[in-house]
Amino acid sequence: MGSDGQNWYLDLTYDQWTPLSVSGPRPAARYKHAAATVDGKLYIIGGSRNGRYLSDIQVFDLKSLSWSIIKLNSGVLPATSGHNMIKWENKLLFLAGHSKDVSDTVTVRFIDLQSYECGVIETFGKLPVARGGQSVTIFGSKLIMFGGEDRNRFLLNDVNVLDLETMTWSTVETTQTSPAPRFDHTAALHADRYLLILGGCSHSVFFNDIHVLDLETMEWSRPQLQGDLVSPRAGHAGVTLGDNWYIVGGGDNRSGVPETLVLNMSKLVVSVLATVKGRDPLASEGLSVSSALLDGEKFLVAFGGYNGKYNNEVYVMRPKPRDVLHPKILQSPAAEAAAASVRAAYALTKPEKLDLSEREDSNFKEVHVDNTQQKLSAEISALGLQKKALESSLADVQAENANLKAKIEEVNSTHADLSKELQSVQGQLISERSTCAKLEAQIAELQKMLGSMQSIEEEVQALRKEKSELERDMERAASVQKQGSGGAWKWITG
């Protein structure tokens, strides 16, 4: 699409990837780079192309749709691939990755977005072994790094945390079954508590599993996903918007994954959001996807990747706002307050043994009756509140049920249409099979005829040969007869 206006993104169709028409030169195509968006600009650092690591810093302006190159005022970035980049304060931090750097541990570098100065940040604590293909997720003022592959191609599944305020590394001890060692997976943070790990690969296996680490208990679990199937993949990219985790691309070294998935992290339900062609840049390994805030609305921005060729296209998607989860019954503030009132009223009206024979004072009896009426009034009032809360919750559930019913009817309608189409295709298939059977019978008959023709051809050749020999014999006989006749004539005429 073109750049006719500065607000071009407001014309995008929801949930569809759109390639951008870029003005001016583009960066070299690549994959396994690092990407981040800041103030409407997409920053791309490093990556790999034809086995060569890159070190350039490219910036794509989402307003003007043009690329530019950052020239550092100080410091040097080593050529790196398979690294991660996180925005922290006014800096871009990028760490780990494969390079020609001889460091045995993970190096953390920075680029100051104001001064364009670059350097290495000194870190402390238990520094993790150098690696590439790991995931790095920001959690408050901490970075959580999982897995990857070290320089000796040893696969990892450790969890390391970097405190950005003290720049101190620590290794996390987890319980339950950890994910199998892997690299080129993707990770996301949900509800400021749960770290989700999806996919990735070992040296021989591609994964489609999901693992969840509870960051409060440091306990791993492996829940089952619902909805659409997730095919095994590595080198895919992911970004979260609220409860939704958008997952793009990846592959298994044979083909790229054409589906863009959205995973609702609260419900653990997967849906296919969009599908591209097999050789599309979005069906690539080692691409990046980021979220960009443009005029208060969030967009997805994808770049690069490899699917038989290296890519440098920029794609954007305008995600449609997703449904917000309905609160469970008796978990809304009004319902909870009603329940509390009922509990309080019940506590006031617990059955007690009343011995009126010992209390002959009529005034006391009157007061006791009034008190009982007050208690009953409180109970009725509390029940009224509960009723209203339940009616409100019931209305929400009925609305959700109506929505689900409409979706079921739509699915049933689609199923009916597909069944009709299937029956039509089956009828066509039966007809085609009948035609094929007839053709096979004709072919068999023709083959028999062809065999007969070969036999006839041999007989014809034999007859031709006999004819040729007979003609030669007749010619010889005629010649001899002619010679004999001439001799007699000569003798007579003497």
Keywords:
single chain, 494 residues, alpha+beta, Neuraminidase, 2 domains, six-stranded mixed sheet, disordered C terminus, Acyl-CoA-binding domain-containing protein 4, Kelch_1, ACBP4-6_C, repeat
Strand content: 25-35%
What is the CATH-assigned architecture of the largest domain? 6 Propeller
Number of strands: 29
Helix content: 25-40%
Report the CATH superfamily of the largest domain. Kelch-type beta propeller
Q: What's the domain count?
A: 2
Put simply, the count of helices is 2
Taking all Cα atoms into account, the compactness measure Rg is 40 Å
Q: What is the name of the CATH class of the largest domain? A: Mainly Beta
Derived structural class = alpha+beta
Residue ranges: pLDDT <50 for 5 or more in a row? Answer: 324-371, 487-494
| CATH topology-level fold name of the largest domain | Neuraminidase
| Largest sheet geometry | 6 strands, mixed
Distance separating the two termini: 115 Å
The chain-level mean pLDDT equals: 82
Described by the principal axes of the CA atoms, the overall outline is extended
Protein name: Acyl-CoA-binding domain-containing protein 4
Organism: Nicotiana sylvestris (Wood tobacco)
InterPro entries: ACBP4-6_C (IPR056819), Kelch-typ_b-propeller (IPR015915), Kelch_1 (IPR006652)
Keywords: Coiled coil, Kelch repeat, Repeat
